[in-house]
């Protein structure tokens, strides 16, 4: 007997930590999706900045199918060719000398934080354990990463948080300077805060963090889970800032939709993660590594990266046109194809109200907090889909304004 799943099945069978839309997509191609009733949508959400090449891109599909007939999973008792090729490719294209592969951004950040603490312990002793991060930051859902993240609501109700974690104001270098000391082991920062509202870092801020870390022999960790692998318009956002971190985390676009994460670091720091100090059951999985390798090689090309910058300008132009007509946004900001539109004062907190209206019009979008409409589409979204998606967004916003 066959059963067609419905939205009510979520409420019946799944833990209620999510509240998904009523629509259930069943098929995707490029920047378009179709639901169970065959209704079509344009995707400006990109799986929350994950589907970097859209849905079912042939480069990724072919990589997945080819590897599926060879080898899926071993264990970390063995290595495998796709994992080694992925690690080599990441090293050759970045500042890094060494790579740790895992399954998600939360895992990548967990590994980054553990590595920083372990390196400081080995190098300076147990007193050097303080981690500085930033209010409104987001670094994952493990207990360590959610504690380092600067949004207390995500840690509430789970008991005492780990010690040695301090939060400063993002883009406020003097606030960090006051907190830095010889007991600081690491500063963790997003080059552009994602969940915190699509806020790019000031270049002087990141340059200052680098200088402070050097002064206090602390490690600079860049969380590029959301900004990395082409999303910002370069392979990683640090390349635009001219600031090189000691550790970098990556996921989301890295797999183009397949679960995979990576932590990148240098030969100076990597030895601290010696045999037995950390692990990941699925990290370096041959299937995930093959897909991620194809994604990185396809995205890190002039054609794709220059296209991201061109599409950024198109998104901004369309949003400004909509705003001139309806006056719903205070500021439009972001980098590459991670774009945020902050709501005007009279629409404070109503970004989330746009999402169901957009769904009704055949468009999928996101929010970054209650006050920022977020867009993170495919890096290769056709310009015609941008235009049509914006027309649908304009209709949704017109309905929002009319409801006032």
Helix content: 25-40%
- Output the structural class: alpha/beta
Distance between the termini: 48 Å
What strand line-up does the widest sheet have?
4-12-11-10-7-5-6
Annotated CATH homologous superfamily of the largest domain: Type I PLP-dependent aspartate aminotransferase-like (Major domain)
CATH topology of the largest domain: Aspartate Aminotransferase, domain 2
Kindly provide the name of the CATH class of the largest domain. Alpha Beta
Oligomer: single chain
Shape: globular
Number of strands: 17
The overall number of domains is 2
What radius of gyration results from the CA coordinates?
21 Å
Strand proportion: 15-25%
Characterize the main sheet: 7 strands, mixed
What's the mean pLDDT score? 96
Order of helix and strand elements from N to C terminus = HEEEHHHEHEHEHEEEHEHEEHHEEHEEEH
Question: From the 3D coordinates, which CATH architecture of the largest domain would you assign?
Answer: 3-Layer(aba) Sandwich
List the uncertain runs. none
Molecular structure report:
The chain is α/β, with parallel strands linked by helices and about 400 residues long. The chain has helices spanning about 5-15, 45-50, 60-70, 80-95, 105-125, 145-150, 175-180, 205-215, 240, 285-300, 300-325, 350-360, 385-400; strands at about 25-30, 30-35, 40-45, 100, 130-135, 165-170, 185-190, 190-195, 200, 220-225, 245-250, 260-265, 330-335, 340-345, 365, 365, 370-375. The strands form 4 sheets. Strands 4-12-11-10-7-5-6 form a 7-stranded mixed β-sheet, with helices on both faces. Strands 1-2-3-15 form a 4-stranded mixed β-sheet. Strands 13-14-17-16 form a 4-stranded antiparallel β-sheet. It starts with 6 loop residues before the first helix and ends with a helix. Pathway: Amino-acid biosynthesis; L-arginine biosynthesis; N(2)-acetyl-L-ornithine from L-glutamate: step 4/4. This is Acetylornithine aminotransferase.
């Amino acid at each position: 007997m066959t059963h067609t799943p419905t939205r009510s099945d979520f409420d019946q069978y799944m833990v209620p930590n999510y509240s998904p839309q009523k629509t259930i997509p069943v098929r995707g191609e490029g920047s378009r999706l179709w639901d169970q009733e065959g209704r079509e949508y344009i995707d400006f959400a990109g799986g929350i900045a994950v589907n970097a090449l859209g849905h079912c891109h042939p480069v990724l599909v072919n990589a997945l199918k080819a590897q599926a007939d060879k080898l899926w999973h071993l264990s970390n008792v063995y290595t495998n060719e796709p994992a080694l090729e992925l690690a080599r490719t990441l090293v050759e294209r970045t500042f890094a000398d060494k790579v740790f592969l895992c399954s998600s951004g939360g895992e990548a950040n967990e590994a980054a934080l553990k590595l920083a603490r372990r390196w400081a312990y080995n190098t300076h002793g147990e007193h050097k354990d303080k981690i500085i991060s930033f209010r409104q930051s987001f670094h994952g859902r493990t207990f360590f990463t959610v504690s380092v993240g600067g949004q207390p609501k995500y840690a509430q109700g789970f008991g005492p948080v780990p010690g040695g974690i301090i939060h400063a104001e993002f883009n406020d270098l003097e606030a960090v300077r006051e907190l830095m000391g010889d007991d600081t082991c690491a500063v963790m920062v997003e080059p552009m805060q994602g969940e915190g509202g699509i806020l790019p870092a000031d270049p002087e801020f990141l340059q200052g963090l680098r200088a402070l870390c050097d002064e206090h022999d602390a490690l600079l960790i860049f969380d590029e889970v959301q900004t990395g692998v082409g999303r910002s318009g370069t392979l990683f956002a640090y390349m635009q800032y001219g600031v090189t971190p000691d550790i970098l985390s990556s996921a989301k676009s890295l797999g183009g939709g397949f679960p995979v994460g990576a932590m990148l670091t240098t030969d100076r720091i990597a030895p601290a993660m010696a045999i037995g100090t950390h692990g990941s059951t699925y990290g370096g999985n041959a299937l995930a590594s093959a897909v991620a390798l194809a994604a990185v090689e396809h995205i890190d090309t002039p054609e794709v990266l220059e296209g991201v910058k061109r599409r950024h300008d198109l998104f901004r132009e369309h949003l400004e046109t909509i705003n001139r007509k309806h006056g719903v946004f205070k500021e439009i900001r972001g980098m590459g194809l991670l774009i945020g539109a902050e709501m005007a004062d009279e629409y404070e907190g109503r970004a989330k109200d746009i999402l169901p209206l957009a769904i009704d019009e055949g468009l999928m979008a996101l929010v970054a907090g209650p006050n920022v409409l977020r867009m993170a589409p495919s890096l290769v979204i056709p310009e015609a889909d941008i235009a049509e998606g914006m027309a649908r967004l304009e209709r949704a916003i017109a309905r929002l304004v009319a409801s006032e």
